[in-house]
Structures are given as C-alpha cells and as structure tokens.
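Data card: per-record layout.
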Amino acid sequence: MNEGKFTGIADLYSKFRPTYPVELIDWLYERTKAETVADIGAGTGKFTKCLTVKPWKITAVEPNDDMRSKLEIAGVEVVNGTAENTSLENNSVDLITAAQAFHWFDRDGFKKECGRILKPTGSTAIIYNERRGAEFLEERNAVFKEYCGIAHVDHLATESVKAGEEELKKGFFSQIETFVIENNRKMDLDSYIGRELSCSYALKESDSRFAEFREALTGLFEKYQKDGLVDVNNITVCYLGKF
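The structure for this 243-residue chain is written out next.
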C-alpha cells in the first residue's frame, strides 16, 4: 500500500467523502452469511461504519496513522497493518472488504494475504464509489489535469463496471458477482470543495498554485450549481469474489 498518500487530509476525507448505500451492506450480508469481517485499507472508517448495521465481528486494518486516528467506531477492533501484511490470524475471517482502496494494494501480496486469513469458504469484496457524468465531470477533470497534473486515479470501474469485472477475472478471482447501485449526492460549495481536496492527488495549501486551484473549483461549482447545490453523480460498485 501507499501508506503516506493521505497524511494530512484525514479530516477532509472523514468529513466529505461519500458513504455507501445500506442496500450494498444488505446484499453482502445475504450473499456471504459471514460472521467475521476484515475491512482492509479502512481509512477513516467510512465503509467500516456502514458494516456495523449488521451483527458481524469487525476488524478494521489501516496503515496510515493520520487516517487511523479517526477510526474510532464502537465495537470495531482497529489494527495497524497493510493489505499485504494485516497481522490477522490464519483462517480467521469470513469476509474481506476493501472500499476505495484496492488500487493502492500490491495485488499479488494482497491475494496471498487474503488466502492466508480467509476461511476456506470466505469471500473478498472490492468496493468503489465511482463518479459518472458528462460536462461537469469533464470540466472537473480538466481543472485537476491543469493544476495537479492528473485528473483521477484509475480504479477498477473507472472505465466501466464490465471492464473492472473482466480485469478481476484475469488471474485474481476465480468466481465473481457484481452489485451496482446509484449513489448520487447534492453538495453545497463547502462539501464540494472539501470532497475535491480530499483526493490524494489534490494540491495542498502549501502548494504555490493552491489558491488558483481552489478558485477554479469554486468557479466550476458556480457554473453548475442550482439553488446553491450541484449534482454529483456516483455509482457504488461491489465485486464479490472467491480465489
């Protein structure tokens, strides 16, 4: 994992990143019949907290000290570990989840670690909130490209849900099921700016062009807002698989 990517932005991440639909949690509960869950690359616990609506025994694994300092959820054990070295016991987990984090993992190392800590019938769920849209998203990406040199970090489902599925079938999962649901948000200016600044590749306040960058994002918001809100379209995608 890239342990230092989110140092210094844990507050933004915790406050402004989107959560996950309860329908996904229901689906995972019904499909896996799991009793123990390890949420790996848990960050500030955005997805971990969603898991607590079910009677699972939950362990959250996160290597970044800044992010992990926000991971205080009643009934959840928090572990300092990586996707490739969780420190969890052999054959101890029914379900592994990785929400908005799989792209940071060493895939071979993660797969090996999953094989070690999963019970023989266990499953692994890779989850993403993915933006969707046309002009607004294109202009947003152009702003990031100009100021940050990068428009987005590629996830499994960035191109399409099907593309992610096909990628995971190539030497990662031997079996796979996919769950997709809309997860759209209406955001005011503070929420929108906070969400963008929570990106690992966004400029920081210490960067020389930060003020220009923030002004460009504000201008984008003003262009597309209606009654003080912009529509930010997302889908939530879950790839549930076995090795």
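Known properties of this structure: Residues 20 and 47 are 7 Å apart (CA to CA). The chain is about 35% helix and 25% strand.

See the next section for split statistics.
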